[in-house]
Amino acid sequence: MTALAALIRRDIRIALRVGGGALIGVLFFLTVTVLMPFAVGPDLALLSRLGPAILWLGALLASLLTLDRLFTADHEDGSLDLIVMSRTPLELACAAKALAHWLAAGLPLIIATPVLGLLLNLDGTATLAVAVTLLTGTPALTFTGMIGAALAVTMHRGGLLLAVLVLPLSIPVLIFGVAASQAAIVGPMSFGTPFSILCALSLVSFVIGPFAAAASLRHGLD
Amino acid sequence: MRLSGQQLRCVRGGREVFSGLDFAASAGEALAIVGPNGSGKTSLLRVIAGLLVPADGTIALDGGDAELSVPEQAHYLGHRDALKPALSVAENLSFWREFLGGEPEDSAKCLSAVALDHATHLPAAFLSAGQRRRLSIARLLTVRRPVWLLDEPTSALDTAGQALFVGLMQGHLARGGIIVAATHLPLGIEARELRMGGAA
Lengths: 222, 200
Prior knowledge:
The complex is a heterodimer of chains A (about 220) and B (about 200).
Chain A: H1 2-16, H2 22-40, H3 44-65, H4 69-76, H5 79-85, H6 90-119, H7 124-151, H8 158-185, H9 192-220
Helix pairs in contact in A: 1-6, 2-3, 2-6, 3-6, 3-7, 3-8, 6-7, 6-9, 7-8, 7-9, 8-9
Chain B: E1 2-12, E2 15-26, E3 30-34, H1 41-48, E4 56-62, E5 74-77, H2 89-100, H3 107-113, H4 129-142, E6 147-151, H5 159-174, E7 178-182, E8 192-195
Parallel strand pairs in B: 3-7, 3-8, 5-6, 6-7
Antiparallel strand pairs in B: 1-2, 1-4
């Protein structure tokens, strides 16, 4: 457990320092959301109808933006070799790295959501609904994205490949995330149904993500 | 304790790097892998470290901890230093101490053993190549492991650093450790040579 805690602490510390990825995601999220009203125009009703979808898209792209460095950085400086060799099971190490990435890059997005909701003319309930669905949905994005990050490790310029591999996997999360927020705001569907599926997607990704990523890392090392 | 490999065969990118390779090193013994570039020195070290899967053959550590695999009882010092530029010298070292687990040594003592104790709070980004190497060597000291796998360990080290590292290797051997090192330069310690074939 000390080993995993040390890994999480290290990754968060690196992400928060200058040059780390934590702020980049939030800034990107902010940019996308701020630009959207300019593109859509001053139609407040339209903005608040599109709001949840815009926030979800922004969060999805923002969390992908920094994900490609999840294993590449460790691979380039040789840390990954030592992590693979260590007494900590690689699956747990992968899960710890994904958790650290979510805490440093995913959680700030959710904290920023209420502020950005104001820009999109969302009321309190709507903002709360989006924030809650992001809170349950973004871990799934990180844990499925981790598989792509592990596959892209041995390739140069793997960032683009990551997007191609991971975006299809994140479509279900996007669908049910936006559906749950819309259900909470306008109905007529109940909030519980899509939200339960979103939770299920997250739980499945917690199980599959670390094993798939570890298998791909073991296979890809050379 | 005895580290040995039998009939090892390694294939990389469809090309056979070496085959039918045997080696053995007992406690307190150093094995120097020598040979021209491309002869498979690094590949052999990575096979022992479990980072490459051999196409054939076995590796065993007799007298080691039966619960642990060979890589889990070994330190690997590769070309790359496994240091994070954003973290300080002390943070880098204490991360590896906590992550690798096992019997920890005092961080300050390890840093002074490689003469880096004056730079504890400096971010690793500001270290020179030689200082980075010294910091990676401190990692070998911070957690005790019986087997050291070293890939060109003395590259980038100055004369004083090399002398210091020779002392550390002698200390490790005196405690019954095993060293397997791939090197072009003389290690400076008494070592058996394992000559790899010419570049194929």
